[in-house]
Amino acid sequence: MEKFIEMTKTFMDDKYAKALVILVASLIVAWIIRFLYKIVFRNIVKKTKTKLDDEIVEAFSKPVFYTIVLAGLIWSIRILGLPQGVNFFSSGILKTIIAVLWISSLLRTVSIILNWLGKRKSKYKLIQKKTIPLFENTLKLIIIGGGTYFILLIWKINVTAWLASAGIAGLAIGFAAKDTLANFFSGIFIMVDSPYKIGDYIVLDSGERGRVTMIGLRSTRVLTLEDIEITIPNAVIGNAKITNESGGPYEKHRVKVAIGVAYGSDIDKVRKILYKIADKNENVCKDPPPKVRFRAFGDSSLDFQLLCWIEKPGRRGLVIDELNTSIYKEFNKQKVEIPFPQRDIHIKK
User: Fold this and answer.
1) Which residues sit opposite 309 in a β-bridge?
2) What is the edge-to-edge ordering of all strands in the sheet holding 302-310?
3) pLDDT of the chain along its 349 residues, tens only?
């Protein structure tokens, strides 16, 4: 027994033997952890309703395994007592590999979590399909920046001087491209705040109206009813008053048609005709139902208004044309007079 203990002590005093033991031990620990991942952790996460935890566990399985193995290898190299330059270089490479493994796993995890959150629109309104690229690129930039910082520290590179230079360069770029940066940040706020989305019909404060075809980080594109595409810088549209005709609880749009009939007309008959015309038009929604309002006693007419809803704001011009045509024909048929403005002139001698 004493001889065995003495042989073990002699073996452990040998630096090569000790390095080998540490390396083998790290491999054994890594395989045990990997086995636990496959048998224990995967079985636990499979019992949950969501696949999010399954994908996250899978994303971190490789970096955990290789981190243990490479950490054992770094420890073994230190025990061997190699020259300082060789030890620093070899350890630096292995630590860099560990950092790259964790950076790639974190990037993958960010994509997994954001895609999962984007599918749950009812709970997470801020993270939607259209805003996922924004959050993903921002978080990936932070992860890559932080990972690069740690890799520079591993190689004992002076980060302070680099950061100072980057700050000066950033100020110069900021002053030179202030309009571009204003458009960029306005585009981010538009994506997050979502005052409109692609496909919505919007009215600008300048009076232009059209369908949003693209929302970029620099500009927003609107296609007018004349099939003319307008490109508006996000900094401009972000500070403008925008009327979203597709906003609200649904995309339906209300159409208003003003009609004047002569004094002495049967107003009940007028109401009946207008309701009949609205009910017969295929582009007018049945829910909400059309309404007819007697608005005012005009100078030359009794002023009515037909209010009805249509499915898409882009059909407003077509529906107004159809309703006006039907009203004019039906009034002529039913002998309902549409008056023209009249003025009485009194001449005093």
Assistant:
1) 254
2) 253-261, 302-310, 291-297
3) 555 455 555 545 577 788 888 888 899 999 988 888 777 777 777 777 778 888 888 888 889 999 999 999 999 888 887 888 888 888 899 999 999 999 999 999 998 888 887 777 555 556 666 667 677 777 888 898 899 989 988 898 877 766 666 666 666 665 656 787 788 788 878 877 778 888 888 998 888 889 998 887 788 999 988 888 999 998 888 888 888 988 777 778 899 999 999 999 999 999 999 999 999 999 999 989 999 999 999 988 999 999 999 988 888 889 999 999 999 999 999 999 999 877 777 777 7
Which listed CATH number (3.40.50.1240, 3.90.550.10, 3.30.70.100, 3.90.1570.10) goes with 253-333? 3.30.70.100
Alpha-carbon span 148 to 256, nearest angstrom: 61
Q: How far is CA 113 from the centre of its chain?
A: 14
As assigned by CATH, the class of the 195-244 domain is mainly beta
Contact of 320 with 255, CB cutoff 8 Å: yes
Give, in order, the Cα–Cα distances in Å from 320 to each of 152, 206, 227, 234, 270: 67, 23, 20, 33, 18
In a 10 Å sphere around its CB, with 0-12 CB exposed, 13-18 middle and 19+ buried, how is residue 171 labelled?
exposed
Strand order in the sheet with 201-203: 229-233, 219-224, 209-215, 201-203, 243-244
Q: Answer yes or no: same fold for 195-244 and 253-333.
A: no
Q: Do residues 296 and 290 make contact, with C-beta atoms less than 8 angstroms apart?
A: no
Paired with 310 in beta bridges are 253, 284
The structural domains of the chain, with segments of one domain joined by +, span 2-170, 195-244, 253-333
**Considering only CA atoms, which of 212, 245, 246, 244 is closest in space to residue 231?**
212
- For 161, the token pair is 């001087």
